[in-house]
Structure to design on (975 residues):
């Protein structure tokens, strides 16, 4: 098959996909309708092209036409801006195996795309602001029901690119503001909540994002101050119901407590209507701070501000942004060649400390008897198939059932180290050995020094954190000079 | 698969070799020094038909050396010849790929051979490229240079402000987004300068083994442009530097920056003015990027390109077209009238687009049409003439206006991408199609006929194994060929 034919095939295949109607195209829709009405292909073409005049233009008094931008809902414009933000996010993801090398090859490209991301985010916030404000006034009942909704839905850049958005879109209630002005708005409850987590979430390691077992822990810090307000008619209200709640994020660094300059959460509790929640997910310093990201009705009016922690209202204020998930990979070490002939280098797997390693965990109870005794027969794998073979004890283990799953290994004292044993039996702390010659050797492994095992273990295994360790006393002086990690 | 990766990820913008295109009329300049890779006897055509005939000859003459389908990869090296130049204050490295300096000599490698060239030959080529760069910049600047003031006029009017106040507002920083101006929010491009069209990183004069028939490639936002030897030959033949001018529009970040460029047809926009210049008689007639131009000319100015093609090509005998030269030249001259008018309209359309680019990309998405601005502006400037002249067309329109309004309203409700609900696989297919469809000039009708032939649906085709797809396509092409000739 020629290359040309392959290309043709690919194209036809793709063409077919588009004709499926996964994304209906206006011009084909108009022409199909015109064709169904029995119009010729020339008439179909004219109907399509003149339909543009009917769709999004307005006729001026002099007979000329101009574009009518209000034909497109503001929400539709916001949708495409959101789409671009999603596209940019995908492109800027360090884990994107196709784009990441491209952005690395042309260093300015990432910076430019990140800047565009900020710009598109700023535009998106402004577009959403227009619709959110309409929604907000509707929810509060402060928008005239006589005004047709269509009047406020169309795109208008005079509404979007405003310098003072806080004056144009205040997100305040006239009821609350009037009370505030008259000194009747009183703060009746303050709740402070702070949570700092070192290990909040796992993110894939950007240097090898496809390996689920490689990951990076990310921390999280969340803090919010919730102040509830009540409109007071007198010094002693009949009930404690809130009228308005304001939440402001804060951070704690050392001894300094820093509030954001504008509230992230406003909850309006109008009489006889569901509560209205206005939330800003962007933190101070991020694009979009102080601009709402959600305006919602809340059908269960919070009696107290603590009850807000039961829902998503607070959690939403601390969402992990896509940008926070974007972790640049560390530079890989230089590629080198290393040749390692066997036996040429001594591989030191032990970490040594002359003062010795200790198990810092408290794993013994007060009676020091929270362990089971186990015994290991030397070469037991081999003699398992030969019951006549003589046995010898390699070590005794004390398996402690406490912190760190500690296991202590002990050598036997004579005569328990006899190399010609026929049978070995452990019953609780009691040890019974029978020699080949038929002699019984018995003893008890008591909690302190005893006749069976050495007074101190020659090695100890334990778990600390996420690792299991082995410490070893090689010369029997009771000092564990060596330490190494072992498999769990 | 390579195509998918290239197009979807790196977002190449390409100008593909348009074989058997129609076209041109230029003063003869046979004696003008040209690059060593030109086939012998290259001329500048004096008639549109000659442009077409000569281009068909040159593509065949250079097929093995410059557009070989069996080409293998090159590996670029530090030994390639690089010439540093500056145009209107912008430095650019011109890299002559496949040209290696060995001692005092320069060695050139193509897809079918390797030879040494003299310093004089190389200098001639450098001068040729230098001249083409200057001409391409001038061509683009003439078309795009005044875009910013025109866009500002439209945007200011829409904002209900005078231009002076509006400009002041644009320069202000958004109080909500420190470091970002209102101009950036609105995406109204800054004033364009000639240097904006110059690749700020590298201009490669080189072959493109991965896509051997490509003429030019621009990597958006990177300042890298490839201008192939075949394109240099073609631009010489045409007498206008259309391919390089096309790539330079892509290269201009103020016009085609990521991500804005994802929301409109960058190829059609980059074909302004290149495919609408008087001298180029090939591209408007045949090139995939000019499909919408042809449609607009047909609907509004009444010229039927399909009919013209049928009238001009008298027969096709084992790959040899017999054409009516006189008719072709006559039609080419008529097209010049249409192109000049369309250039004026496109000037208004681009100004309108860049006055509110985000709004237009949103409309494009709603209509699923990345060239909607061209169509809307034409509808505001002209009456169609397709149904037997303006009078007859407009009378038909007035009679049927309520019905058209109904179709339009219904189509408006139904159109638009389902966004989140769309199957990601189909979305990828769609994006890929958008990119390469125009490049290889497969009509939508062809795809429809293919589906009718196999009584299949697009969804079903998606589930076919590649081997089945290949067999069916080959059978379909063979069937169509057999209807016309016996081999």
């Amino acid at each position: 098959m020629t290359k040309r034919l392959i290309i043709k095939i690919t194209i036809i295949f793709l063409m077919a996909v588009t004709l499926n109607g996964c994304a209906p195209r206006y011009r084909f829709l108009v022409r199909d309708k015109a064709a169904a009405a029995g119009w010729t292909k020339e008439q179909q073409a004219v109907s399509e092209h003149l339909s543009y005049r009917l769709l999004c233009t307005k006729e001026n008094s002099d007979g000329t036409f101009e574009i009518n931008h209000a034909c497109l809902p503001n929400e539709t414009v916001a949708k495409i801006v959101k789409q671009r933000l999603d596209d940019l996010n995908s492109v800027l993801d360090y884990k994107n195996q196709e784009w990441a090398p491209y952005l690395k090859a042309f260093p300015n490209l990432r910076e430019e795309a990140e800047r565009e991301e900020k710009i598109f985010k700023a535009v998106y916030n402004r577009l959403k602001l227009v619709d959110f404000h309409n929604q907000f006034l509707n929810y509060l009942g402060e928008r005239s029901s006589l005004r047709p909704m269509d009047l406020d839905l169309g795109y208008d850049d005079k509404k979007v690119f405003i310098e003072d958005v806080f004056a144009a879109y205040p997100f305040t209630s006239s009821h609350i503001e009037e009370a505030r002005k008259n000194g009747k708005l009183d703060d009746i409850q303050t709740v402070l909540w702070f949570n700092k987590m070192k290990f909040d979430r796992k993110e894939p390691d950007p240097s090898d994002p496809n390996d689920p077992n490689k990951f990076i822990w990310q921390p999280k810090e969340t803090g919010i101050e919730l102040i509830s307000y009540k409109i007071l008619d007198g010094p002693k209200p009949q009930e404690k119901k809130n009228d308005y709640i304001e939440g402001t994020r804060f951070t704690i660094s050392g001894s300094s407590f820093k509030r954001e300059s504008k509230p992230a959460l406003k909850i309006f509790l109008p009489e006889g209507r569901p509560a209205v929640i206005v939330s800003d997910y962007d933190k101070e310093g991020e694009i979009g701070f102080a601009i709402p990201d959600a305006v919602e009705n809340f059908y269960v009016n919070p009696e107290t501000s603590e009850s807000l922690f039961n829902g998503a209202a607070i959690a939403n204020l601390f969402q992990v942004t896509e940008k926070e998930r974007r972790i640049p990979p560390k530079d890989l070490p230089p590629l080198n060649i290393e040749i390692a002939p066997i036996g040429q280098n001594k591989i030191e797997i032990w970490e040594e400390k002359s003062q010795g390693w200790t198990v810092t965990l408290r794993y013994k109870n007060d009676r020091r008897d929270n362990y089971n005794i186990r015994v290991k027969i030397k070469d037991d794998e081999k003699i398992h198939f030969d019951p006549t073979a003589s046995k010898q004890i390699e070590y005794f283990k004390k398996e402690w059932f406490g912190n760190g799953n500690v296991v202590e290994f002990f050598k036997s004292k004579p005569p328990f180290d006899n190399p010609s044993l026929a049978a070995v039996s452990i019953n609780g702390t009691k040890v019974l050995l029978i020699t080949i010659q038929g002699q019984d050797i018995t003893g008890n492994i008591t909690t302190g020094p005893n006749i069976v095992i050495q007074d101190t273990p020659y090695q100890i295994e334990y778990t600390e954190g996420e690792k299991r360790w082995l410490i070893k006393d090689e010369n029997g002086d009771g000092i564990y000079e060596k330490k190494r990690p072992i498999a769990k | 698969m390579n195509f998918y990766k290239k197009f979807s990820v790196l977002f190449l913008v390409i100008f593909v070799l348009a074989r058997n295109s129609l076209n041109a009329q230029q003063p003869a300049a046979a004696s003008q020094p040209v690059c060593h890779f030109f086939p012998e006897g290259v001329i500048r055509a004096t008639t549109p038909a000659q442009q077409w005939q000569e281009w068909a000859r040159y593509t065949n003459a250079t097929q093995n050396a410059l557009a070989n389908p069996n080409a293998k990869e090159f590996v670029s090296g530090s030994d390639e010849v690089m010439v540093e130049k500056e145009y209107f204050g912008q430095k650019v490295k011109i890299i002559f790929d496949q040209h290696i300096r060995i001692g005092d000599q320069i060695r050139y490698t193509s897809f079918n051979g390797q030879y040494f060239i003299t310093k004089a030959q190389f200098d001639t080529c450098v001068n040729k490229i230098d001249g083409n760069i200057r001409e391409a910049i001038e061509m683009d600047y003439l078309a795009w240079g005044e875009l910013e003031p025109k866009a500002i006029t439209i945007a200011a009017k829409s904002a209900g402000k005078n231009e002076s106040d509006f400009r002041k507002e644009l320069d202000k920083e958004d109080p909500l987004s420190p470091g970002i101006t209102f101009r950036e929010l609105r995406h109204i491009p800054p004033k364009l300068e000639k240097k904006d069209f110059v690749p700020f990183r590298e201009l490669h004069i080189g072959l493109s083994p991965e896509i051997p028939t490509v003429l030019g490639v621009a990597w958006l936002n990177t300042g890298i442009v490839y201008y192939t030897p075949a394109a240099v030959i073609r631009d010489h033949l045409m007498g206008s530097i259309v391919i390089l001018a096309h790539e330079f529009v892509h290269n201009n970040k103020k016009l085609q920056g990521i991500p804005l460029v994802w929301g409109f047809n960058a190829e059609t926009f980059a074909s302004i003015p290149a495919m609408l210049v008087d001298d180029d008689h090939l591209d408007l007639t045949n090139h995939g990027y000019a499909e919408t131009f042809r449609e607009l000319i047909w609907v509004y100015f009444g010229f039927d390109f399909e009919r013209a093609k049928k009238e001009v090509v008298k027969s096709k005998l084992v790959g040899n077209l017999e054409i009516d030269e006189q008719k072709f030249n006559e039609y080419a001259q008529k097209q010049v009238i249409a192109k000049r008018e369309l250039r004026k309209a496109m000037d208004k359309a681009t100004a309108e687009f860049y006055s509110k680019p985000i709004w237009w990309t949103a409309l494009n998405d709603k209509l699923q049409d990345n060239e909607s601005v061209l169509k809307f502006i034409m509808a505001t400037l002209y009456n169609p003439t397709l149904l037997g002249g303006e009078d007859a067309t407009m009378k038909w329109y007035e009679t049927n206006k309520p019905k058209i309004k109904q179709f339009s309203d219904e189509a408006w409700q139904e159109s638009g991408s389902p966004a989140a609900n769309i199957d990601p696989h189909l979305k990828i297919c769609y994006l890929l199609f958008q990119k390469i469809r125009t490049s290889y000039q497969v009509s939508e009708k062809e795809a429809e006929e293919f589906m009718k032939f196999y009584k299949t649906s697009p969804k079903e085709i998606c589930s076919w194994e590649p081997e089945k797809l290949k067999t069916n396509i080959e059978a379909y092409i063979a069937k169509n060929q057999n209807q016309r000739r016996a081999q």
Observations:
- Chain B touches chain A through 105 residues (CB under 8 Å).
- Residues 424-486 of chain B form one domain.
